[in-house]
Amino acid sequence: MWGRRRARREQEAQEAVEGLAASFRSTVEGADRSHEALLELREALAQELAEIAVLLGRRDGVPADAIRGQTDAAARVLADVDGMSERYTETRAHLVGKDLDDLGEIMPSLEELVEQAQEMAAAGEPFVEAIESVMELRRTTERLRDDLVPLRERIHAAHRAARDELAAAQGAPGWFGRQATLATLGDRLTALDEGRVTPTPEHNVTDHYRELEREIAELRDVLATDG
Fold it and tell me: Are residues 164 and 224 in contact, defined by beta-carbon separation less than 8 angstroms?
């Protein structure tokens, strides 16, 4: 009889340990899924930011400085996620491999792991919003780059023509003033091409280029009159 009771107690203890182990594994696996989902979102955002970076600095009129400023918030999101992931990895490494018999050692780390998993799950929705925002920024940048091509070609042609016309008019009254004006217009064109001009809703990049085009045309009119 005593032997049967002992065997039953041992079986119950074994079942309790197995149940604890199963619960432990389930909790860790659920936390891992939250972590993996967040890392997938991180990769998607990093890819979008990389694609935007490729569009910048090409001297094609895309407002690189302004666009970099718009991506700063997304870059901070990446940094926050990296910190979150690092903390999770450290907590998990500390937890996995512990003796399940020592609940006092396991529970604080397990609770922390669960809290971190909840934090990662909660970060999912704003992360998706950040990805969508950056995707829209990339699409807008690509459209702007394409739209600027004919306008920039026309302005650069006009600027070259003005430079040739000024050279032909050398020595005419007011020539040095015209030269200074053309140099200023050239500097503004370079700043636009290099993306150093910050657009506003009231005065976008296209407006800046068209304004410059008008001023170059006005200078050429003056040069034609002088001639």
Answer: no
Please tell me the least confidently modeled range out of 24-33, 126-135, 159-168: 24-33
Kindly state the tokens that stand for 120. Answer: 């990662």
- CA distance linking residue 166 with residue 219, whole number of Å: 9
pLDDT digits (tens, 9 = 90+) for 143-175: 999 999 999 999 999 999 999 999 999 988 899
Burial class (CB in 10 A: 0-12, 13-18, 19+), 112: middle
Closest CA to 213 of 146, 156, 148: 156
Among 130, 91, 137, CA closest to 114: 91
Query: Are residues 176 and 210 in contact, defined by beta-carbon separation less than 8 angstroms?
Result: no
Contact predicate 152/60, CB 8 Å: yes
